[in-house]
Amino acid sequence: MATFLPLPTNLPGTERVMRASGCALLRRIRPSFLIGHSFGALFPILLSDECPDLVAGNDNLEPATIPFQSYTGNATSVVGRTPNRVWGLTNTPITYQPPISSPDELKTISVGEDTPGLRSCILQMEPARQLPRIAQVPYVAITGEASPHTTYDHCVVNYLEQAQVIQAAQTLKQSRTQSPRLEILQPSSQ
User: Fold this and answer.
1) CB neighbours of 26 closer than 8 A, spacing ≥ 6?
2) How wide is the angle at C-alpha 117 spanned by C-alphas 43 and 77, nearest 5°?
3) Which residues pair with 8 in a beta bridge?
4) DSSP β-bridge partners for residue 61
5) 40, 5 in Cβ contact below 8 A?
6) Cα angle for residues 54, 8, 85 (degrees, 5° grid)
7) How large a percentage of the chain has pLDDT more than 90?
8) Is 84 exposed, middle or buried (0-12, 13-18, 19+ CB in 10 A)?
9) How far apart are CA 101 and CA 99, in angstroms?
10) CA distance 188 to 163
């Protein structure tokens, strides 16, 4: 589920097509582990919400599903950002608990400061709504220590923790001569 630039211009349309075709494919081949990279890490999230019983797990390499924004920024911020993903992690509705009928019902707050090395994150105001369907599927995020994704992938992890999709992230960090940083994220117990 990798993608290449340029990104699609109709993100809601792309998400709707992936929900339908991705779940149809999984029904044919049976439950599977999904591997996504960067922007492509959006699709395992969509399928985990749409057909969680068909997703055995999500392995996401440098997941660029930054809550409420896109990593393809503009010149108005030192780190660049563009408003995006009005439903938090997606541009199309996902299942929240308590339920919502409009993305305007998600109340957000900016956390942290923007620096060239680390972005601030947009999270839900507490009490945060949960993502119960997505929480049914194990989620792993892997970000290399030298990757530019280290500046914003923590926002995805923080959002998933807040929405009770995963328990607190476990980070395994070794020296630069060994392996890169690995975040092992366990599904929350329901």
Assistant:
1) 32, 47, 51, 54, 55
2) 80
3) none
4) 37, 142
5) no
6) 65
7) 55
8) middle
9) 7
10) 10
Q: Tens-of-pLDDT digits for all 190 residues of the chain?
A: 554 556 677 889 999 999 999 999 999 999 999 999 988 899 999 999 999 999 999 999 988 888 998 766 555 555 567 888 999 999 999 999 999 999 999 999 999 988 878 888 999 999 999 999 999 999 988 888 888 888 888 899 999 999 999 865 555 444 444 444 445 555 555 5
Cis link prior to 132 (omega < 30° from 0)?
no
For residue 48, indicate whether it is catalytic.
no
- CB under 8 Å to 126, separation ≥6 — which residues? none
The span from the CA of 109 to the CA of 104, in Å, is: 13
List 32, 38, 175, 179, catalytic entry: 38
